[in-house]
Design a protein that fits this description.
mainly alpha, Rhopdopsin 7-helix transmembrane proteins, two-stranded antiparallel ribbon, 9 helices, 76% helix, transducer, oxysterol binding, receptor, disulfide bond, transmembrane helix
Amino acid sequence: MNSSMAYETGNCSTRNDYQQYLYPAVYSLALALGLPGNLGALYVFIFKLRPRASSTVYVINLALADTSILCTLPFKIHYHLRSNDWAFGDVACRITGTLFFANIYISIAFMSCICVDRYVAVAHPHTYLRLRKSHYAVLVSALLWVTAGAAVLAFILVGPLDSGPNGGPSGRRSCFENFSKHEWDRRVAPCSLFSLIFGSLLPSAVILVCYPLVARRITLIRTNTARGALRVIYTILAITLFCFLPYHVVQFLHLLRRLEIIQHCPYANAIYDAQRVTIALVSLNSVLDPILYYFTTSHSLYNTESKVSYW
């Protein structure tokens, strides 16, 4: 393997050889721990839990999104072990790349849905009695998947990606990184801006707003429903702060760098390295989500056994 790989960013250059060790290690960990956890959760929520409330529907869809991300990781591990040399062709690159990033955003969207669902259950239980039926959640989930699917298809069907060489030996091809300026301006920048606003800022704002609202409400309500909601939202908040928030902040800085608003080389290089680390970090979301499934499952079983009328 070439240990002196470098990436050109404008007039700057930064080493990226650490990627061939960082990504395979993190992605292998995510596969080993996340895939059994998410497949097990899908089995429990689909075949074991009845009746199926709205929160269950959102968790099923979150597990599906996590599983979709995990299915792309073997290709990405292979890519980075080959010193960032993609061997599966342009179509496979577009499919795996768009699935990976689209499901990152749809994961936090479903977390936002769970957060809102818990808030309404605690703060407005009578309203929740009308909304807890699963067909409302199925409709919301379908709209999210259709939106994500349309974005994925639009990106895939537009045509080949111009990622260009990755800075290594001749013949190596990048996949979903190191886009040429033409490709960035034509296709990637609009998608990045749309994702930043609707896939990052809005869901994160929902989660960060729901948490203090529920916490304040729970100080006045001392029930198992309220305590269970707080555990769920604590978990979502922790996953957001650990996995998603660093990724979203760095993606915003990366957008400024690619738009040449940030040009100073030390800053540009730091943003490049931070983006690589946060992309690895966000994949660990699929490892932490089963903790959320556990709390949701535990409370769903409690409510089934105790015949609680809302949750």
